[in-house]
Amino acid sequence: MRKEDCFYLGKIVSKYSFKGEVLVKLDADEPEIYENMESVFVLMKDNTLVPFFIDKCRLHKSELLRIDFEEVKDEAAANRIMGHELYLPLSVLPKLEGDKFYFHEVIGFDVLDEVHGNIGKITGVNDSTSQAIFEIDKDGKEILVPIIDQIVKKVDRDNQAIHVSTPDGLVELYLG
């Protein structure tokens, strides 16, 4: 499995028991949908994804998932995967409808502004800041547009376009 074909689920943040159970900090709006997983991919130090099978998996205090892996049955084994990231195939993501979208699915979409028309294609999404931002390429120039309800008006999956209403001066700041 390639990392490009997967989505980031969370990170192993601590051991839970001496029997090798670990706690995973999930990056999910609905953590409960991941309670009955049978397996996940663990990103190893050499940047490969390795499947790990799950004996038992349950929510632990809101956004933590307590996992008992088949292959991890003691503290030493748990220590070897501590801090590692977990991934799942994109195919297991629930389908979103309407104006909700996953960041990876809108890469390549055109961005259509109410005033300026087509302001470019989405090349990426920066979600490392407190506010997620579309990274848009317009003829070699980068435009950054915050992903907020007041700006994103419509997601048109059929035509691979996102309709936006950018604040006055934002687009001109990058293209002017």
UniProtKB/TrEMBL annotation:
Residues 104-170 form the Ribosome maturation factor RimM PRC barrel domain. InterPro entries: PRC_barrel-like_sf (IPR011033), PRC_RimM (IPR056792), RimM (IPR011961), RimM_N (IPR002676), RimM_N_sf (IPR036976), Transl_B-barrel_sf (IPR009000). Keywords: Chaperone, Cytoplasm, Ribosome biogenesis, rRNA processing. Transmembrane segments: none annotated. An accessory protein needed during the final step in the assembly of 30S ribosomal subunit, possibly for assembly of the head region. Essential for efficient processing of 16S rRNA. May be needed both before and after RbfA during the maturation of 16S rRNA. It has affinity for free ribosomal 30S subunits but not for 70S ribosomes. Belongs to the RimM family. The PRC barrel domain binds ribosomal protein uS19. This is Ribosome maturation factor RimM. It comes from Zobellia uliginosa.
